[in-house]
Amino acid sequence: MAAFLQVVIAGTRKYFADLAYDHRKSDSEFLSEYTARSLTFCTALCGFSCGCFGFNAKDKKCRVYNPCNQADITVAEAGWRNYFPEALPRDCHDLHVEDSVEFGVNQVYPFDNTTSLHVQCYMETNDTWWTVIQRRRSGSINFNRTWADYKGGFGNLGDSFWIGLDEYQNMPSISL
Hints:
By secondary structure, the chain is of the alpha+beta class. The chain folds into two domains: 4-85, Hepatocyte Growth Factor, CATH 3.50.4.10; 92-170, Gamma Fibrinogen, chain A, domain 1 (Gamma Fibrinogen, Chain A, domain 1). The protein contains four helices and 14 strands. The protein has a six-stranded antiparallel sheet, covered by helices on one side. The longest helix has 8 residues, at 39-46.
């Protein structure tokens, strides 16, 4: 059984280190290498855009990879620990599986790990979570709109809204 460490960036992006990859580095070309005084500094260099990163606490080095392939981490070198990003929630169901969902407006990443979208989450009585694409609540929003409005979305996620056809067609868990 593998042991894991967890690093959190800005409270939203998590990176995990599988200790089975300790003291090894990737044999694939890295995006960049930095002198890094700490793991926190190295983590910040990676941010939201890198595939993974390695940190050598002994040599104070940070290597950023994009893309990242765990199968390439084969070269033995003392001091390296490799960190891999947690998959971000793509919809309300993913949030529910992670037990971090709340009824109402939540942030998801339906397209990739860098582009977020705020959506309304709803739970049925049988513990099924839904990503809401349209809601008509108070009557304060006029749904008699132009095609451009329906394409781009309109309204207020806390009240009445249409998520937008551009967002709807790209949501991974929504089927027609």
